[in-house]
Every structure is written in structure tokens, then in C-alpha cells.
């Protein structure tokens, strides 16, 4: 039932207060996004940690970028990207690990295409089971079997050792743990890698040689590693490759543990994902005290007795009925989480009071007890920080429609009505708007790795794009971290004491101190362990999911852009030519894809995916589907995915499942999969090409003088 | 020489721990991390038993002639619900502690005997048992507040 904003918020506050009085803070959970502004995450983090005091906070960044953060914490002692986009312009080689950059970061990919078309073309090495655009331009393509990344990485690192490409002096001076790594990788000959991963042994040798003989390598990592078995272990191995060669913090020699969403970085910094703000260590009482002092709250209010509750566990607590208040902002778990039948059941539970805050009426919003309309990014002001730590300011351009409000306003309203207060009795969140929030955040970051104290709104208006840390010592920020080979691993400073990579057991302060890191990076290693769901007689094919260039997340926004939606309007499943022949499938035939969790029924694209593997795009839910599809839940890729996660980063394993594929009906035409991306047909003649047409063309002229005058006025 | 008694104790306690992990995995399948890690750790226990085989071949294995004061027969059925989970993990912790401390005794003997083969076996297995205890602790600490306060 439609109502006004005041009534809606009153209802939320009433329920929240009643539950806090009756059951306490552990009854509350918050699940947010990688798409809000920094100021909004920080407000949410303070509400959760200092207002309510619940450890049950996470974002959909858990599904997308948790492993990036975790791998950097494990290797370097804290989150924070070592490299820079600038390294693309100067590297001798780019290694893309499970990173279909051509479709996930199209602008960044243009920068690589510039290098490829330029005079000193870098080597490109691609690890991906699909024949992506990246694979097409690669010098070496390693079409690894899903679930075997760690075996491949062990093999590549073994080559680095065997051929003497290790910078022993640097490793000795700046790392701990190399001996354990050497012994772990020792059995992984290229032949053994070939057998396990389904790649060519000589390609493993060639890829390793490119790494070993290049002076400046840039490595990028994304969901092919993060959402796969042994996510953290394999991503740490990428860090290890660079550590072994001392290839970090130099021009062109960098690591980009990527993000999938625009502000995932801010979520992690601010602690809306459950971590403590500004990369503080929940296991370090001094860090918790710093926050208590900053916020003027009792230290015991701030949850720090165990690691924060990750998203999958939050949903489990809802399922078990112990979380009775769940607030979902700017994300759509009813389509994006694994094993959707289960997720729908959880969202639909009578026992949970569900608040959903979003731009549109998403699939998740259908289950909400209260739905709050929120403003989009152009309808509010705030900052965001991209993968390489560069901070930008985004000013409001237009008013939000109707009663939609900026997410920050909504959180501040909730905090005020709840009466969250400091020890001195004043309001906990007394901010008037985003700049107040930002100033509070700057203070929170003082002296921490993500130091924002030198980056004011004014500075950003003077030329947006300043990479943290930016402070008195570094007034213009720092393009690359760790140029001096000193890492934030000091036990009193680090964000994490680390974990065992096989089990996720916390290392703990005492054992971490015993490592005697003294600012050295930690070389972590782990044996390869086969993924838990391997193909068998019942489900003989490997199933993996991912993006297409034309859509983002669950199409909440991109489906509403006609040009984008026309390019990829409906879901599909990709299958290799030989698997299609064996199953009697042709382009456009309708197939049923079944896993132990559920089934989808979608048209087939006979494409370039590896033999034995099928791929489905994860964007398609039900909000604009036909009644038949929406009621039957037959199109979302996550109907099939498994409820399992990496033991360290807790990132779900969207890329490891076993399925069977059967023909349901003959084609009425080719599938709607784009022909311009990794989903291109194996037989190009069989499918009309994806073209933008006139609607997708635009032209414009930037009037430099007018623009400069506007900027001057805006900053005066 | 009483080492064969301790080797027997160790082998039996690893077996008990392995079957208990499997029991807990099956009983708490709705917690996917518990399910998979218990399976993985059960396999580690199987590996430890295999690693002990050549040592037992050399020293033999003898039953204890002392009366058993504290019975550790393993977990034969699991509990349910959030508190049931931490109770079961706690039982696993006790069994793993018994394995851990038994390895420690065997290690002492191995050092005294300057038995390099046994020292190597202990080195690998003892490190894994300590990680197992670490995981059980981490998981219990995570689950305990919710289970004890609000579930």
C-alpha cells in the first residue's frame, strides 16, 4: 500500500525499537550495495556499529569484491590497491586472471586496446574458460577448467622458481613465507597443470616465461577467480607472483585486484561490509577503542568479538528466525544471490521485517514490508573511490523524482528517529548533508592506510581524482603503494592478522606476531583442493555464470535503457559446438539446464565456451519477464548456483556447479545473445549481428570555455 | 617401550575424529561451510592415519593396559539448531584436542629417539591439527553469540 515517507519511516522505527528492546542488537541485519556513495556507507556503518551494535552487516560486495579485499589483507596486511590504472600505459605485459575486462570494465578495456594498437604492444595473457574478447587478443589464452585456478597458479609459480626468475634479494628483504610456497608448488609441473586444468602444458610455460622475462607486468584479477573455488588462495597467488619478482609499486608493474561495482571500494573502506572503518582490525582492541573515542560511544557497543557476519550467514540467520529485521539497500538478492529458490523463501518469511530501499521496484522489493524509494547517483551528492584508490566527487545534477530521497538522508532520518546518541548525549549522526559526513569520514581515516585527510570537497572540485593516501605528507595523493617495499603488516597497524587459506581459521595476534613481519609482505600458500561439486553422470557439465557487456547487476537500471536492453533483451545459455552436437542442440533451441538446486529453461547460444562447460549470464530476473517465466522462475542463472563460499573471503562460488542440459523445444529463431561479445555465435552466419543503430549513436560538442566557467562558478 | 601404546592411541583418536567430522557434516548440511570443511578435515585425519602406518609398522602398536578413565568414543549422532551446532563443534574440539596432545607426546618420543621419519610425520600432521583447532574456534566464536543470546 502506498503511503507517505513519514509513515513509512515511522513503521520502520517502531519495529526496530521494539525488536531492540525485546531481542537486542543481534536481531538486526543490514545488507547493502557496491553502488552507494562513501558518505552513505559511513553513515550506515556508524548506525550498525555505534548506534545498534550489530555485527550483521554486509554488502553485495561480498558477492563481487570481497576476495579482492581479503587477498590484499592476507598478502599486504591491509586492503588497498597497490597498482594504478596508469600502469596500463607503461607495462610490458598484462595478465588478466578470470577478468573479462572487455565486458566488465569497457572504458578500462579501451585503454588496453590503445596499447594493443600502439607501437610497443604489451603481451596479453588471459585466464578464462571462455573465448572472450580478451582471449581473442591474447598472446596466451589459458582456458582453465572452472574450479582449478589454484592448480594453474601453483604451476605458474613453480615455473618462476624453476627458471630462477625470483628476485631473491628483494624477497629476502621484503617478504616472509617463501619457503612454504616453494614446497607447495613443487609438484605442479606444466604437465600436471595441463591434466588438472585442461590447458596446454606449453601454454603454461609460455605464460610463465612472459611473466618471468618481462620487466613490468600488470596483473588484474576478477570474478573468474573471486567467485570460484579457492578464491582467496588463488588471488593471493597472483600477489605472490609479483612479490617473488619484486614487481610492485613501480611504474607499469602492478596488481589490480579489481572491483565489480563502482563504489565497492568505499563500502570496504567505510565498513558497511562489516569490517571496521578505515581498515581497522576488529581483533585489535586499540583499533576498536580508536573508533569508540572518535564516535564517543562505549567501546563494548562496537561488535568486535568475532569476524563480522558475512552476507550468506546473515541470510542463514534470517532463515533460522534469529534476525528479524533486515534492511536491504541498493541491491537485489532475489536475483543476485546463489540458489534463488532458497533466497526467495528467506525473503518471504513471516518472521522477518524486511526494509528495501531502491530506485525501482526490484524482485527483492516485492517481498518488502516497507519499501523506500531512493535517489539515483545523479540525484544526490557524494564521493566515490575507484579501484585504484582515486577519489571523485559527484555533484547532484537533477532532483530526484517524487518522494525519492538520497540514501544518506534516509539513513540520517532513521538514526535521528532512533535517537542514537553519543555518550555526551548529543546525536550520534548530527550531519546536515554529505559534506558533513565526508568530513567526519576524513577524521576517521587519519593515520590509516586510506588516509583521506588531505582530500576535501574543495580539492575535488579543483580537479576531481585524487588517489589516497592523501595527507600532509602526500598532499597530492599516492599513485602506487609499496614503492618502498614496506607493507602495512605491523601487528599494531595491520587490518587483519590473516587466516589459514584452506579453512579460514583466524591466525590470531600471537601467531601473527611470531611471523615477525616488520613491514614485510606475507607470502601465503595453499595446496590445490578440487572443488566440491564436480561433474558426474547425473550432472555431466560444468556450469559457470558471468556478465555481458550490455547489462549490469540484475538489470535494475540497464534494462531501462532501451539501447542496452535491445542488445541483450533475454537470457540464454552458451554451449560449445561439440557439446551441442552431442545433445542434439542447435542455435536458438530451447534447453532445460538443471542442477541439484533447480532449473532454467532458456534458448541456446552455440558459442565458443570450452568443451564441457556451459555459461549463463546472471543478470536476468523476473521483473520484466513474461508471467510464465516469472511464475515458474525459469530464467535466472542463480536458480542453479550452489550455496557455498570461499572459507576466507566468504565470497559465494557462482562459477562452480555441475549441470545437465536437455533439449525442450526447437528454435523459433536464434537466441538473443549479443554477437559482439564473448557470447558471439560459433557460426557467425547463423545469427544476425548485434548493432546499435541510430538510437545508439550520439554526438556532442564540449564548449571548453562554458565548461570552465561553470566549474569556476561551482567552486567559488 | 610404551611408544607403541601411544601410536595406537593416536591412530584410534584420528579415526574417531574423522568419523565424528563426517557425522557433524551430515548432521549440519544446512551450514555449507561446516559441511564442506568437516568433510575436508575428515580426509586430513584419514591422511594422518596413513602417514602413521609406516611408523606403526616399525614400532608396532599395542593396546593400553591402563583403565580408560575418560571415554572419547566419538560423535555418533548430531544435535540440531544453532545451539546444537556449537555443542557439536565443541565436541569436535575436544576430540581434536585429544589428537593434538597425543601428537605432542609422540613428538616428544620421536625427538628423544631421534627418529627423523617420525619427526617429519609429526611435523606435518601436528600443524594440520592445530589449524583444525583454529577453525573450530573461529567457527564457534562466530556462532556463539547468536546461538546463546537470541536463537
The CATH class of chain B is: Mainly Alpha
State the assembly state of the protein chains: heterodimer
Our estimate of the beta-strand percent of chain A is 5-15%
Cα distance spanning the termini of chain A: 45 Å
Q: What's the story with the biggest beta sheet of chain B?
A: none
Uncertain segments of chain A are none
Q: Give the CATH architecture of the largest domain in chain A.
A: 3-Layer(aba) Sandwich
Determine the fraction of residues in helical runs of chain B and give it as a percent range.
Answer: over 70%
Given the C-alpha coordinates, what overall shape of chain B results?
elongated
Question: Which segments of chain B are poorly predicted (pLDDT under 50) over 5 or more consecutive residues?
Answer: none
Sequence of strands across the biggest β-sheet of chain A:
17-19-18-21-16-20
What is the averaged pLDDT score of chain B?
94
The count of β-strands of chain B is 0
What would CATH call the class of the largest domain in chain A?
A: Alpha Beta
Largest interface: A-B, 31 and 25 residues
Number of helices of chain B: 4
Give the proportion of residues in helices of chain A.
25-40%
Report, as a whole number of angstroms, the end-to-end distance of chain B: 52 Å
Query: What count of domains describes the coordinates of chain B?
Result: 1
Protein name (chain B): DUF892 family protein
Amino acid at each position: 500500500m502506498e503511503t507517505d515517507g513519514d509513515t513509512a519511516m515511522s513503521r520502520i522505527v517502531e519495529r526496530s525499537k521494539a525488536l531492540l528492546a525485546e531481542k537486542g542488537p543481534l536481531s538486526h541485519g543490514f545488507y547493502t550495495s557496491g553502488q552507494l556513495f562513501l558518505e552513505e556507507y559511513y553513515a550506515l556503518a556508524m548506525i550498525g556499529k555505534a548506534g545498534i551494535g550489530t555485527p550483521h552487516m554486509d554488502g553485495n560486495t561480498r558477492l563481487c569484491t570481497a576476495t579482492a579485499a581479503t587477498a590484499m589483507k592476507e598478502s599486504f596486511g591491509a586492503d588497498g590497491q597497490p597498482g594504478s590504472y596508469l600502469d596500463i600505459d607503461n607495462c610490458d605485459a598484462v595478465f588478466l586472471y578470470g577478468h573479462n575486462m572487455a565486458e566488465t570494465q569497457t572504458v578500462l578495456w579501451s585503454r588496453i586496446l590503445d596499447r594493443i594498437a600502439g607501437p610497443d604492444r604489451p603481451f596479453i595473457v588471459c585466464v578464462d574458460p571462455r573465448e572472450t574478447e580478451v582471449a581473442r587478443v591474447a598472446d596466451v589464452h589459458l582456458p582453465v577448467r572452472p574450479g582449478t585456478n589454484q592448480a594453474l597458479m601453483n604451476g605458474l609459480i613453480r615455473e618462476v622458481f624453476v627458471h630462477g626468475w625470483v628476485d631473491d634479494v628483494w624477497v629476502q628483504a621484503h617478504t616472509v613465507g617463501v619457503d612454504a610456497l616453494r614446497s607447495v608448488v613443487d609438484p605442479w609441473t606444466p604437465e600436471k597443470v595441463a591434466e588438472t586444468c585442461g590447458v596446454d602444458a606449453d601454454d603454461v610455460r609460455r605464460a610463465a616465461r612472459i611473466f618471468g622475462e618481462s620487466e613490468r607486468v600488470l596483473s588484474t584479477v576478477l570474478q573468474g577467480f573471486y567467485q570460484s573455488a579457492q578464491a582467496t588462495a588463488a588471488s593471493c597467488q597472483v600477489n605472490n607472483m609479483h612479490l617473488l619478482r619484486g614487481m610492485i609499486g613501480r611504474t607499469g608493474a602492478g596488481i589490480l585486484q579489481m572491483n565489480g561495482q563502482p563504489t565497492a571500494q568505499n563500502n570496504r573502506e567505510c565498513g558497511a561490509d562489516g569490517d571496521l572503518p578505515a581498515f581497522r582490525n576488529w581483533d585489535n582492541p586499540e583499533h576498536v577503542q580508536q573508533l569508540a573515542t572518535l564516535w564517543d560511544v562505549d567501546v563494548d557497543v562496537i561488535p568486535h568479538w568475532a569476524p563480522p557476519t558475512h552476507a550468506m550467514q546473515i541470510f542463514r540467520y534470517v532463515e533460522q528466525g534469529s534476525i528479524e529485521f533486515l534492511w536491504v539497500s541498493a541491491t537485489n538478492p532475489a536475483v543476485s544471490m546463489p540458489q534463488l529458490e532458497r533466497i526467495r523463501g528467506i525473503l518471504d518469511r513471516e518472521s522477518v521485517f524486511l526494509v528495501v530501499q531502491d530506485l525501482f521496484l526490484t524482485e527483492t522489493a516485492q517481498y518488502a514490508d516497507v519499501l523506500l524509494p531512493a535517489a539515483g547517483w545523479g540525484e544526490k551528492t557524494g564521493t566515490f573511490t575507484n579501484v585504484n584508490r582515486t577519489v571523485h566527487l559527484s555533484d547532484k545534477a537533477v532532483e530526484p523524482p517524487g518522494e525519492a530521497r538520497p540514501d544518506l538522508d534516509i539513513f540520517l532520518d532513521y538514526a535521528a528517529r532512533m535517537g542514537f546518541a553519543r555518550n555526551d548525549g548529543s546525536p550520534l549522526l548530527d550531519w546536515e548533508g554529505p559534506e558533513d559526513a565526508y568530513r567526519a569520514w576524513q577524521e576517521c581515516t587519519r593515520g590509516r592506510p586510506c588516509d583521506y585527510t588531505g582530500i576535501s570537497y574543495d580539492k575535488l572540485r579543483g580537479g576531481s581524482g585524487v588517489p589516497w593516501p592523501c595527507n600532509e605528507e602526500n598532499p597530492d595523493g599516492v599513485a602506487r603503494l609499496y614503492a618502498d617495499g614496506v607493507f602495512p603488516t605491523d601487528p599494531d597497524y595491520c587490518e587483519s592478522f590473516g587466516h589459514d587459506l584452506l579453512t579460514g581459521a583466524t591466525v590470531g595476534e600471537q601467531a601473527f606476531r611470531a611471523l615477525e613481519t616488520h613491514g614485510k609482505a606475507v607470502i601465503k600458500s595453499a595446496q590445490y583442493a578440487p572443488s566440491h561439486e564436480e561433474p558426474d553422470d547425473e550432472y555431466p557439465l560444468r556450469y559457470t555464470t558471468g556478465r555481458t557487456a550490455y547489462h549490469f547487476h540484475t538489470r535494475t537500471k540497464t534494462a531501462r535503457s532501451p539501447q542496452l536492453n535491445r542488445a541483450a533483451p533475454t537470457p540464454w545459455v552458451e554451449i560449445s559446438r561439440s557439446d551441442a552436437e552431442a545433445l542434439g542442440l542447435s542455435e536458438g533451441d530451447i534447453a532445460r539446464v538443471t542442477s541439484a538446486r533447480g532449473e532454467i529453461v532458456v534458448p541456446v547460444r552455440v558459442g565458443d565456451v570450452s568443451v564441457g562447460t556451459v555459461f549463463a549470464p546472471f543478470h536476468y530476473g523476473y521483473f520484466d519477464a513474461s508471467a510464465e517465466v516469472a511464475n515458474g522462475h525459469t530464467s535466472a542463472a542463480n536458480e542453479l548456483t550452489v550455496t557455498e563460499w570461499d572459507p576466507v573471503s566468504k565470497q559465494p562460488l557462482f562459477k562452480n556447479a555441475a549441470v545437465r542440459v536437455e533439449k525442450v523445444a526447437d528454435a523459433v529463431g536464434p537466441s538473443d545473445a549479443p554477437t559482439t561479445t564473448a557470447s558471439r555465435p560459433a557460426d557467425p552466419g547463423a545469427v544476425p549481428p548485434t548493432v546499435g543503430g541510430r538510437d545508439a549513436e550520439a554526438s556532442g560538442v564540449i564548449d571548453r570555455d562554458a565548461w570552465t566557467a561553470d566549474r569556476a562558478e561551482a567552486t567559488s | 617401550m610404551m611408544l607403541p601404546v601411544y601410536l595406537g592411541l593416536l591412530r584410534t583418536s584420528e579415526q574417531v575424529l574423522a568419523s565424528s567430522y563426517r557425522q557433524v557434516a551430515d548432521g549440519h548440511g544446512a551450514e555449507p561451510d561446516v559441511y564442506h570443511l568437516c568433510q575436508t578435515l575428515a580426509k586430513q585425519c584419514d591422511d594422518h592415519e596413513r602417514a602413521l602406518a609406516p611408523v606403526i609398522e616399525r614400532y608396532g602398536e599395542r593396546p593400553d593396559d591402563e583403565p580408560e578413565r575418560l571415554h572419547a568414543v566419538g560423535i555418533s549422532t548430531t544435535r540440531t539448531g544453532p545451539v546444537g551446532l556449537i555443542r557439536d563443534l565443541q565436541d569436535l574440539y575436544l576430540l581434536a584436542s585429544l589428537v593434538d596432545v597425543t601428537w605432542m607426546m609422540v613428538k616428544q618420543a620421536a625427538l628423544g629417539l631421534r627418529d627423523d621419519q617420525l619427526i617429519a610425520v609429526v611435523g606435518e600432521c601436528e600443524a594440520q591439527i592445530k589449524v583444525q583447532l583454529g577453525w573450530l574456534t573461529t567457527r564457534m566464536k562466530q556462532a556463539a553469540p547468536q546461538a546463546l543470546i537470541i536463537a
